[in-house]
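User: Show me a protein chain along with its predicted structure.
Assistant: Here is one chain, sequence first, then structure tokens.
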Amino acid sequence: MENTLAAGFISPDDKKRVEALQRYQIMGTPPEQTFDNIARLATQIFDLPVSLISFIDTENVFLKSNLGVEEIRNSPRSNSICTMALGTDEVMVVEDIPNLNQHLMTDPLLVAEMGFKFYAGAPLITHDGFTIGTICVIGREKRTFSEKETNMLKGLARIVMDEIELRLRGIFDAEKKAKDAARLAQLNFNNQSLIAKAPMAIGVLNGRELKIELANPIILEVWGKTDEVIGQTLAQALPEIKSQGFLQILDNVFTSGTPFYGKEVCVSLERNGKLEDVYFNFVYQPLKDGDGNTTSIMIVANEITEEMNARKALQTSERQLENMVMHSATGMAIFTGKELIVETANQPMLDIWELEADAVLGRSLLEIFPNSVNPGSTDAILEVFGTRETATFPEVEVVIRTPGGPKPMFLNIIYVPVFDDEGEVDQVIASVSDITQIVNARNLLEKLGTEKQATNDILLSTIQDLTAVNQDMMNTHDDLTTTHELINKMLSGLQDSQPGLLHSLEKIEESVKKAETAVKTSAENTSIGIWHVDVETMDCTTSPGLRKLYGYPLDQEISWPIAMTRIVDGYADRMLEAIHKSIELQQPFSFDFPLYAYDGQPSKWLRAFGKLDYNDGKPTHLSGVTIEIPDPGTQIQNSPV
């Protein structure tokens, strides 16, 4: 719900609140990647263009992170919408800023030309109860803000405060180390040999003009200079730092007598002939005379460029890993800690789970899928933390409990451990492939294969019968031809001498011709081709039915080379391999293959079956039949010949 506190609200304990803010030493400091990352995450979570992390002192609102309005770093407290969070512990939501308070539209963050209308801000509350700033998101459209979104923004506010506390502890640690180093350096101020041998960069700048009085070898190396710079001002020795704000900070240290501590600060220095971004933890420690007046400033610095680059590389790797996960066609997710918090889950994984991203991200897998007992379940993921090895579960049959009910599936699952800097398993990457359709298809094929084998057995058992019938037909045809020839001889001898016998023989000849024609027609019209392959010579004899199936004249004997030209490329060689394998292993032969469209005839698919004939226990022929089968759906081109 909307908060109606005035923008200029000042609580009675505002002085204490500002003192609490000041102890964090964050006002006016340069941008830091940690806070920018949180602001960027907020824009992504709430799908809004602007996210700010602000801190509010007595007069100003300082933007530590200003994603979306990079040109603004400060705004007056008196008319800033961010100050409306003061005095409340709850998230403040303004669904239509102009209708709430036109005075707010003078806030540089909300000027009319920017068109901002929506605001939601969560207070940043210290451990002792003071609100020192806000994390907020801003949009150009009126919108509502759900309770879930409110809780998420509160969570981000707690993360910001954790980072602020962590930053402060780092400052204290750096201050302690720097103070110890500065105290040591001051005690040995006149002993340049000790400073020269110090294991950190140390230099002394004299007077307000910051003339380099002392620089040990390490700081000279850091600067990329030689001892020729001693006696020059810092601005003369390092002109590249003039626009980076360090000379102003040093002047403030000199005039105020207050040390300045820098943590993970980036400086652009000219080294090896080019500008390099270098990172330091450092202290500017004022050195005072007996009257307490600052006379010099000691610089004590520790270069941490390698550590920062390593951290950036790690962050880049993490982003690349997340990008890989999110764009993988395989279901992938990243689980953190033994609570198995879902850090990332891509769309294929969400599809397997049948859940939306906001229903799983940030939650424990143990909570999302309680009492999981499938192979490769949450117990298996937890085991990876102990074994420290990749776990693979191929073709796992699981039942996933989805909002739509139990979902049986077959999955290939791989769990890969991810190690932290200390070599411990910190995360587990899950890669899950849904192979349900593949397994079901294979099972169906196996079932069809069993049925096909039974059919093959029946067909193979008829080969001998068909072969015998074909042989009988051929023998009958041969006998009829011989009889026909004999009758012709007899007729030519009789002529007019015995007209009665001649008439009878002519009737017999007519019957023989009809029988011969019937046998020939039967052979020509059959839809089954019969063939015999000599296992020694590989010579093949064929029936008219086979020649008909191949589209050749019935009286043309076809050889292997001729037959191969009709078979679609790739299948001919495979057929020969299958025949040789059948002969070698002495097992039944079966092969499906397509023929090109040829001479006006359409393309077709044939199935050949065969079995070996034996003589004295030795195979002599591979005999079989060929039939036409339905087109399985494979596209067949026209014959290339």
